[in-house]
From TrEMBL:
Domain Alcohol dehydrogenase-like N-terminal: 27-123
InterPro entries assigned to the protein according to its UniProt record, in alphabetical order: ADH-like_C, ADH-like_N, ADH_3, ADH_Zn_CS, GroES-like_sf, NAD(P)-bd_dom_sf
Lineage of the organism: Bacteria, Pseudomonadati, Pseudomonadota, Alphaproteobacteria, Rhodobacterales
Source organism, top-level taxon: Bacteria
Pfam families from the UniProt entry: ADH_N, ADH_zinc_N
Name of the protein in question: S-(hydroxymethyl)glutathione dehydrogenase
Keyword Lipoprotein: no
Keywords tagged on the record: Metal-binding, NAD, Oxidoreductase, Plasmid, Zinc
Entry-linked PROSITE patterns: ADH_ZINC (PS00059)
Enzyme class: oxidoreductase
Length: 370
C-alpha cells in the first residue's frame, strides 16, 4: 500500500512529507493506522543530527496511538479494530529481561530495532523509487500507517481520545512511571523535580498521586511556575535567582535533603545537583533526562558512600503491554490529567513547525493529528 509520512531524509534537515510504500505485516507484525502522534525531544535529537546513532532515511515518531488494520500470521493478542499505543520498549513476556522481574528493558527485538529494522532484518517502508526507509524506535509514528511487532503494541480501551492518549506512548508514562515504578515514592515524601517540561510535569503529577508532601520544581524559566503549581508543585525555584550554592538552598528548603530527586533536563551539571540535593543516608536521585552524546556524570564518591543513590529510568520503568492500558484508564477515570499539557495541535504538513515550537517555553506537547 501507499501512505503519507514525514520522512527524515538526512540529519539536520526538515522532515519531508511524502507518499511512501508500505508492505503489509509479516509474521508476528501488525499494520496500524496512526490517528495521532506527539513530538518528543528524542525525535528532535535524531532529526537534528545530534544523535550519533541516528540512521537516515527514516520515519521518526514514537509517541502514537491508532487502530489495528491487519494482523500478520501468528498474531494472537490483537485483532482488526483494536485501539493500540506503540511501544518503543516492547514487552515480549518471555526473554530473560522480561522474566527477571527487575527491568522493563525487553531485549527480544533490541538489535534489529536499533538498526531501524523490523525483527526479520528488513524494513516495511520504502521510497517510491524502492529505496528502503528505516523504522525508528520500532514505532515510526510520523506516518499515517506503520507496521509494528505485536509485542510492541499495548491494547487500550476504545473510548479514549487518540489525540490525548498518544502522549502516554512516551511522556506521560516516563514521568509518572519514574515516580511509581523506579523511585517507588512513599506517602509524605519530600521531592525535587528539575526541569518542568513535558516529562517533569508528569513527574509532578505522579508525585501528587503518590502522596508526596513537598514537591519542589526547579526550572530556569519562570513561566513554568504556574503550570507546575497546577499539577501539584508546592515550591518553585529558579536557579538563576538563588544566591549562593544551589544544593545548600535545596537541602534547606527540604529540611535536610529530598527523599527523591528527578532530573528531567538532560543536563549533567543538573544531574549532579540533583544527586547532592538528595537526603544523606537514604535520598535517591533518578535520572530521566537523556544527556548529549558522549556526556559523563560526576560527583564525589563520598556522596554515595554516605547513602545517596543514583538511578536511571527508561520509559518510566513501565512494562508497556501491562502498564500502558492501566495509565489510559487512569486518564479516562480522571486520576491523571493530560489535556492541559497538549498545548499545540498540528497537521502532518505542519510537523516541522512542531519542532520549532519545541524550543519555545510555552509548548509542553505538540500533537499531530491525521
Ligand atoms: P523539555 O524541553 O520539554 O523540558 C525541559 C525543561 O528543563 C524546560 O522547561 C527547561 O526550561 C528546563 N531546563 C533546562 N535546563 C535547565 C537547568 N539547567 N536547570 C533547570 N531547568 C532546566 O523536555 P522534556 O520533553 O520534558 O524532556 C526532558 C528530558 O527527558 C530530555 O532529556 C528527554 O530526552 C528525556 N526523556 C527521557 C525519557 C526516558 O525514558 N528516560 C523519555 C522521554 C524523554
Ligand atoms: O534496551 O538497551 C536497551 C534500549 C532501551 C531504550 C530505552 C530508551 C529510553 C530513553 C530514550 C528516550 C525515549 C524517548
Ligand atoms: Zn519520547
Ligand atoms: Zn522480553
Amino acid at each position: 500500500m501507499r501512505t503519507r509520512a514525514a520522512v527524515a531524509l538526512a540529519p539536520g534537515k526538515p522532515l519531508e512529507v511524502m507518499e511512501v510504500n508500505l508492505e503489509g505485516p509479516k509474521a508476528g507484525e501488525v499494520l496500524v493506522e496512526i490517528k495521532a502522534t506527539g513530538l518528543c525531544h528524542t525525535d528532535e535529537f535524531t532529526r537534528s543530527g545530534d544523535d550519533p546513532e541516528g540512521i537516515f532515511p527514516a520515519i521518526l515518531g514514537h509517541e502514537g496511538a491508532g487502530i489495528v488494520l491487519e494482523v500478520g500470521e501468528g498474531v494472537t493478542t490483537l485483532e482488526v479494530g483494536d485501539h493500540v499505543i506503540p511501544l518503543y520498549t516492547p514487552e515480549c513476556r518471555e526473554c530473560e529481561y522480561c522474566l527477571s522481574g527487575k527491568t522493563n528493558l525487553c531485549q527480544k527485538i533490541r538489535i534489529t530495532q536499533g538498526r531501524g529494522q523490523l525483527p526479520d532484518g528488513t524494513t516495511r517502508f520504502s521510497m517510491l523509487d524502492g529505496t528502503p526507509i528505516h523504522h525508528y524506535m520500532g514505532c515510526s509514528t510520523f506516518a499515517n500507517h506503520t507496521v509494528i511487532p505485536e509485542i510492541a503494541l499495548a491494547k487500550v480501551r476504545k473510548d479514549a481520545p487518540f489525540d490525548k492518549i498518544c502522549y502516554i506512548g512516551c511522556g506521560v508514562t516516563t514521568g509518572i512511571g519514574a515516580v511509581i515504578n523506579t523511585a517507588k515514592v512513599e506517602i509524605g515524601a519530600r521531592c525535587v523535580v528539575f526541569g518542568l517540561g513535558g516529562i517533569g510535569l508528569n513527574v509532578i503529577q505522579g508525585l501528587r498521586m503518590a502522596g508526596a508532601d513537598q514537591i519542589v520544581g526547579v526550572d530556569l524559566n519562570d513561566s513554568k511556575e504556574e503550570v507546575g503549581r497546577y499539577f501539584g508543585m508546592t515550591d518553585f525555584v529558579n536557579p538563576t535567582k538563588v544566591e549562593g550554592d544551589m544544593v545548600a538552598h535545596l537541602v534547606e528548603l527540604t529540611k535536610g535533603g529530598a527523599d527523591y530527586t528527578f532530573d528531567a533536563t538532560g543536563n549533567t551539571k543538573v544531574m549532579r545537583t540533583a544527586l547532592e540535593a538528595a537526603h544523606k543516608g537514604w535520598g535517591e536521585s533518578i535520572i530521566i533526562g537523556v544527556a548529549a552524546a558522549g556526556a559523563e556524570i560526576s560527583t564525589r564518591p563520598f556522596q554515595l558512600v554516605t547513602g545517596r543513590v543514583w538511578r536511571g529510568t527508561a520509559f518510566g520503568g513501565a512494562k508497556g503491554r501491562t502498564d500502558v492500558p492501566k495509565i489510559v484508564d487512569w486518564y479516562m477515570n480522571g486520576k491523571i490529567e493530560i489535556d492541559p499539557m497538549i498545548t499545540h495541535k498540528l497537521t502532518l504538513d505542519q510537523i516541522n513547525e512542531g519542532f520549532e515550537l519545541m524550543h519555545k517555553g510555552d509548548c509542553i506537547r505538540a500533537v499531530v493529528e491525521f
